[in-house]
Specification:
The complex is a heterotrimer of chains A (257), B (470) and C (213). Chain A is built from 13 helices and eight strands. Chain A has 257 residues and is an alpha/beta fold. In chain A, the strands form two sheets. Chain A has a four-stranded parallel beta sheet with strand order 2-1-3-4, sandwiched between helices. In chain B, the strands form three sheets. Chain B has a six-stranded parallel beta sheet, sandwiched between helices. In chain B, strands 8-5-6-9 form a four-stranded mixed beta sheet. In chain B, helix 9 crosses helix 10 and helix 15 runs parallel beside helix 17. Chain B starts with 7 loop residues before the first helix and ends in a 5-residue tail after the last helix. Chain B is elongated and about 95 Å long. The longest helix of chain B is centred in the first third of the chain and has 24 residues. Chain C has 213 residues and is an alpha/beta fold. Chain C is built from five helices and twelve strands. Chain C starts with a helix and ends with a strand. The chains are: A alpha/beta (257), B alpha/beta (470), C alpha/beta (213). The interface between B and C is large, with 105 and 79 residues. Chain A: This is (Fe-S)-binding protein. Chain A: InterPro entries: Cys_rich_dom.
């Protein structure tokens, strides 16, 4: 890895809303992994939300406003990286669509999209990281979020890196291509359906025999952690980055069972 | 058909607590999802065929007028008649006129979603005609007086035991229980009906412009008995089902069965070209194609044109987690699942269907299996956009969105609000690190706890640890 | 009231943002596309048999057409069927046993067994291609419990596209009814459980005549 400051790419770390509010540890874990991968990490304080809640609720104008704001904050970096498939898919796929008819912004949206990455795919696909020097004692199962897996093709990358963690064994759950029922505001607009899908997913987690649930999207993880805790299941929950960075020693998401 | 979509939420919640429905829906996965996945993996050409099918459909839609005119000419040449129907009422009227003219008494039907869409059975029955559905699934739900809950497996919501009860009540005699006995019983009951029918109505999977043929793709053979044994064969089909040539039929056949039922082919693919010919010992004396627009042409050139590629395979609903949890009836009209959540608002209006585009997690699995690659999540999001623009979203949601935008457009306010929330929620979470209930967030806490924040936001912590940096 | 045909065509053109297509565009639009076919290098006969059997059809290989009547007889006996059959006219000249009650017309309601010829066998999917005509009632393919099809090995074609060529070569053009049949009738509508013999034949049995064995 290049360590010379001149060749270190400048990465703007996107602090997703849920990470910023609920799980700062994920942000620090992401920063550590990025620095270990030879990047210099900066966290612009002027950043807010990517706009996805507006986009998915049909308020495209609000989403555009926030897209323009985020582009201005981040376009000076070599890369924009965030610990979330969902938010980064918004930057990568949705910004160019949202601003396609805006001649002043279209190219800027496309340029930003091209250098925006989900954390683990950035580490592996862009920075060539193949292993991490960390340890985690436990059997984990990995939840593929839909936006990571189908939206960004992030499926092999987390498994590659988790495979290098000493002491960790991976037990895949059944039906891992099935949505957990989070779905952004869906989870509060249709709580009964969302709760059922969460129950199906946590049953699959339990059946996998894993003692730890990992994932790359805090929306899904908060939702599943809430369900696991409500049902009294003893599974620990972490963001993948926390385990990969060796920062999964504290209480997991949702606290102790 | 009556629109029950405004009751989505209540029907969905009732469906979630129906153990028989859960049992029935659980089987669609084994029956359809796993088999489709096996076949898709076994066919190296499959993904390429999907691209070709998408592109060919786009070509067809861009020249729809041409191919429809070609089809009309070819049907006429073969001695049949094409009836162009601008809307559902016209389609019903045309079919009723035919039934009256030929003095029909008994009408048999093969499965046709368009006939459901235009409310055909109700219209025929209101005029005193006896209408019998012959597709086994349609027959079951006709006995139950229910609409279909799936576009290719209309009785997917019924368990074997429920079918046994329905047949026992309708047919009398000893109650049959095994699948073989039940199917045989229906076979015998329906056999007489095919021979008695004056008019046989089927759908059309494809309309072939080159030959003037209508094509049905089935497994049971009921559609063939329906159309061969009745005096008059009426095909109901949407204008978008046209394909230019036989070569296009093979293209779509290769993806249809694999996507729909996870088979390399369905059992019967039947082409009908005009009525009985001189010397033919059987076949219908008249052949009519009722070509239904009913809003389809209005989708051309707009944001929903991609939806016209749909070949009605049902893969999207088979793979939809929401459909899998609540079943098809919650959607409240003819077409359920993701394709229905797009089509229903376009056919019956945005107002009566407010839940449909929103009751979706945008997980994208439907799009990932759609044989013609319809971007269903994007179309659902566009419908949400139209709802938003037309003021069809609830005031509380609009206020929440406006507040979120106001805050998110002001980075200092955003950070401040997050700091306050992080502290407050941590306090409420206490030692457990989570909240079991939270005022104004019952939507979340009714079914799950809310993990509590750590107390300080990432942005403030980062700034504290990196005072020199941005 | 405007003609709905004109209304619909006008709406389509309005949606597409153009007027009627020039007549000269027609020929190119109607050209037959060459879509991707499914590649396979198995022997046609072998693939046909494997695919048909995978769909619950059955095949009996015969050396010559003259063996057909005995094979039909043996089939009837094995299934305990009464000695009657609807035998399509093209097969009437075969040496049928005197004890078999035969007719050549369309199927009656209680038809048990039919024996028909066919246009082709499609190896891609293990399907039979049948066409209606004066000698070929369509009801024979759907009404009887048992449908026996005589297929010559020389009638095997690789895929659908080759079958279309057959249809186009027919003197009357596209027949009134064309059936592509892939195994016996089936349904999954009761309890989403596969059951053979829904409305059409419970059994599809192909008498494959000639070819290398």
């Amino acid at each position: 890895m290049p360590t010379d400051n001149a060749t270190r790419p400048r990465v703007g770390l996107f602090a997703t809303c849920l990470m910023n509010l609920f799980r700062p540890n994920v942000g620090f874990a992401a920063a550590r992994l990025l620095e270990d991968a030879g990047c210099s990490v900066e966290v612009p304080q002027a950043q807010t939300c990517c706009g996805q809640p507006g986009y998915n609720s049909g308020d495209f104008e609000a989403a555009r406003a926030l897209a323009r704001q985020l582009i201005e904050v981040f376009e000076g970096y070599d890369y924009v990286v965030g610990p979330s498939g969902s938010c980064m898919a918004t930057l990568r796929h949705d910004y160019p669509k949202l601003l396609a008819d805006d001649p002043a912004w279209r190219a800027r949206a496309e340029a930003l999209a091209a250098k925006s990455h989900e954390l683990l795919s950035f580490l592996t696909d862009v920075r060539g990281v193949r292993s991490v020097p960390t340890r985690y004692a436990g059997t984990v199962t990995y939840h593929d979020s839909c936006s990571s897996m189908r939206g960004l093709g992030v499926e092999a990358q987390p498994r590659l890196l988790l495979g290098s963690v000493a002491g960790l064994s991976l037990a895949e759950m059944a039906d891992r291509e099935v949505c957990c029922g989070f779905g952004g505001s869906f989870c509060v607009k249709y709580p009964a359906i969302s709760g059922r899908l969460a129950g199906d997913k946590t049953a699959a987690v339990a059946a996998s025999g894993a003692d730890t649930l990992l994932g790359g999207d805090l929306g899904c993880l908060l939702h599943l952690a809430g369900k696991l805790r409500r049902d009294g299941q003893p599974v620990k929950i972490f963001h993948t980055a926390e385990v990969l960075a060796g920062m999964a020693d504290g209480p997991g998401i949702g606290g102790e069972a | 058909m009556q629109v029950n979509s405004p009751n989505f939420k209540a029907k969905a919640e009732a469906a979630l607590t129906d153990p028989q429905l859960r049992e029935a829906l659980g089987k669609t996965r084994i029956m359809f999802v796993n088999k489709r996945a096996e076949l898709a993996a076994a066919l190296p050409e499959f993904e390429h065929l999907r691209d070709e099918a998408r592109d060919r459909k786009n070509h067809i839609l861009a020249h729809l007028d041409h191919y429809l005119e070609r089809f009309d000419e070819a049907v006429t040449r073969a001695g049949g008649k094409v009836h162009w129907c601008a809307d559902a009422a016209e389609a019903r009227r045309v079919i009723l006129d035919i039934c009256r003219r030929v003095e029909a008494k008994s009408i048999t039907k093969g499965k046709s979603m368009v006939s459901e869409e235009i409310g055909l059975n109700e219209a025929l029955e209101a005029e005193g005609y006896r209408v019998l559905e012959t597709d086994l699934g349609e027959y079951i739900i006709q006995l139950a007086h229910e609409p279909p809950s799936h576009i290719i497996a209309p009785a997917a919501h019924k368990t074997q035991e429920q079918v046994a009860d329905l047949f026992h009540a309708a047919h009398g005699g000893p109650r049959k229980t095994t699948v073989a006995e039940l199917v045989t019983e229906a076979r015998l009951v329906l056999r007489d009906e095919y021979f008695r029918a004056d008019v046989g109505i089927t759908g059309g999977n494809f309309l072939v412009a080159e030959t003037g043929s209508t094509v049905i793709v089935t497994n049971e053979g009921n559609g063939d008995l329906t159309q061969t044994l009745a005096r008059v064969h009426i095909v109901t089909s949407g204008i978008e089902r046209i394909v230019p040539t036989l070569e296009d039929v093979s293209l779509f056949l290769r993806i249809l069965a694999r996507s729909a039922t996870g088979q390399e082919t369905e059992t019967y693919t039947t082409f009908s070209t005009g009525p009985r010919r001189p010397g033919d010992p059987d076949g219908p004396e008249e052949f009519h194609v009722v070509l239904v627009d009913n809003g389809r042409s209005g989708m051309l050139g707009g944001p929903f044109q991609d939806m016209l590629r749909c070949i009605r395979c049902g893969a999207c609903m088979n793979h939809c987690p929401v459909y899998g949890a609540v079943g098809g009836h919650a959607y409240g009209w003819v077409y359920p699942g993701p394709m229905g959540a797009v089509l229903t608002p376009l056919f019956v209006g945005l107002d009566a269907t407010r839940d449909l585009p929103n009751a979706c997690t945008l997980n994208g699995r439907c799009q990932s299996v759609c044989p013609v690659r319809i971007p269903l999540p994007e179309l659902l999001r566009e419908l949400r956009h139209q709802q938003h623009q037309q003021g069809l979203r609830p005031p509380a949601e609009r206020r929440a969105l406006a507040t979120w935008r106001f805050v998110a457009e002001r980075p200092r306010l955003y950070q401040f609000a997050n700091r306050v929330a992080a502290r407050a929620l941590k306090g409420l979470g206490g030692d457990a690190g989570r909240l079991r209930s939270l005022p104004f967030a019952e939507g979340w806490t009714a079914f799950r706890d809310l993990p509590a924040p750590e107390g300080l936001t990432f942005l403030e912590l980062w700034q504290a640890r990196h005072p020199g940096k941005r | 009231m405007p003609d709905s045909r004109d209304t619909i065509l006008a709406r389509i053109r309005a949606g597409l943002g153009r007027g009627p297509l020039p007549a000269a565009a027609g020929a190119a639009l109607d050209a037959r596309p060459a879509h991707t076919r499914i590649a396979f290098d198995d022997d046609l006969t072998e693939r046909f048999i494997t695919k048909l059997c995978s769909r619950a059809g059955s095949v009996n290989r015969l050396a010559s057409l003259s063996e057909v009547p005995a094979a039909v007889d043996a089939y009837g006996e094995a299934h305990g069927l009464p000695p009657r059959a609807a035998v399509a006219r093209p097969l009437a000249g075969l040496p049928w046993p005197a004890g078999l009650a035969r007719h050549e017309g369309p199927a009656g309601k209680d038809e048990i067994l039919s024996v028909t010829a066919c246009l082709a066998g499609i190896a891609e999917t293990g399907s039979i291609l049948l066409a209606s005509g004066p000698d070929s009632p369509t009801t024979l393919n759907f009404v009887p419990d048992h449908h026996l099809v005589v297929l010559l090995a020389s009638q095997l074609v690789p895929d659908f596209e080759a079958a279309w060529a057959h249809l186009r070569a027919l003197p009357g053009g596209m027949p009134r009814t064309v059936n592509i049949v892939s195994g016996p009738s089936r349904t999954g509508d009761v309890g989403l459980t596969l059951q053979l013999g829904a409305h059409g034949p419970r059994s599809l049995h192909v008498l494959l005549v000639g070819g290398d064995t």
